[in-house]
Specification:
GO molecular function, one term: transferase activity
Protein name: glutathione-specific gamma-glutamylcyclotransferase
Order of helices and strands: EHEEHEEHEEHH
CATH superfamily: Gamma-glutamyl cyclotransferase-like
Pfam family, one: ChaC
Distance between the termini: 46 Å
Radius of gyration: 15 Å
CATH topology: Hypothetical upf0131 protein ytfp
EC number: 4.3.2.7
Strand content: 35-45%
InterPro entries: ChaC, GGCT-like, GGCT-like_sf
Number of domains: 1
Largest sheet: 5 strands, antiparallel
Number of helices: 5
Helix content: 25-40%
CATH architecture: Roll
CATH class: Alpha Beta
C-alpha cells in the first residue's frame, strides 16, 4: 500500500523526508488552528508556545499538501514522523481520506489534536495567540518563525489562511 502523508503546518515547508509526489489536498471535517500548546519544539514547559493542529469540526475543511512516499521508504518515514509528531502524545495519528486537487482521493496519515490532552487549547482569541507566539521559543527555534514559514508557504501554494496572515502581521508588530 502506498504511503500518503497529509501536511497542514510545518510539514508543508519542512517535511523532513524524501517525497515522491506533492499534491494540494483537502481534508474535510477538520479545521487548522493554533490549538495546541508547544512545550518541546516551539516553547517550553515554563513558556509554552503554540503550534497548529487539526481540530475535528463538522463542515469545516483544511487545505494542505498530500505527500506520496516511495514504498521502499515507508517504514523509515513512519518512524521519523512518529518520533517528530508524537513526542508528547497531544497529536493522534489517524488514517484519513483526503481529496486531491485535480481529482481522486487517498487515505493519508494525518496528525490531529487530542482535545482531551492537557496541551489542547482550542478557542483562544487571535490576539492571545499572537501574544503567545511572539514570546515563545523552543528546541526548534522561535514560535514566530514557525508561524511565518507556515503562513508564507501556504500563501505561495495559493492556500492562504486569513487567520495565519492576521497573526503574522500582528506578531511582526509585536516583535
Amino acid at each position: 500500500m502506498t504511503l500518503w502523508v497529509f501536511g497542514y503546518g510545518s510539514l508543508v515547508w519542512n517535511p523532513g523526508f524524501e517525497v515522491e509526489e506533492r499534491v494540494i489536498a483537502r481534508l474535510p471535517d477538520y479545521a487548522r488552528s493554533f490549538c495546541m500548546r508547544s512545550i518541546h519544539h516551539r516553547g517550553t514547559d515554563e513558556n509554552p508556545g503554540l503550534v497548529l493542529a487539526l481540530d475535528a469540526m463538522q463542515g469545516a475543511a483544511c487545505e494542505g499538501v498530500a505527500f506520496r512516499v516511495e514504498d521502499a521508504r515507508s517504514d523509515a518515514v513512519m518512524a521519523y514522523l512518529r518520533d517528530r509528531e508524537l513526542v508528547s502524545s497531544a497529536y493522534v495519528e489517524r488514517e484519513l481520506e483526503v481529496e486531491l486537487r485535480g481529482g481522486g482521493r487517498e487515505v493519508a496519515v494525518t496528525y490531529v489534536v487530542d482535545p482531551n490532552h492537557v496541551q489542547y487549547c482550542g478557542g483562544l482569541a487571535l490576539e492571545e495567540q499572537a501574544q503567545i507566539i511572539a514570546r515563545a521559543h523552543g528546541g526548534r527555534g522561535p514560535n514566530s518563525e514557525y508561524l511565518f514559514n507556515t503562513s508564507q508557504h501556504l500563501d505561495d501554494l495559493g492556500l492562504g489562511d486569513a487567520d495565519l496572515n492576521w497573526l503574522s502581521t500582528r506578531v511582526r508588530a509585536l516583535l
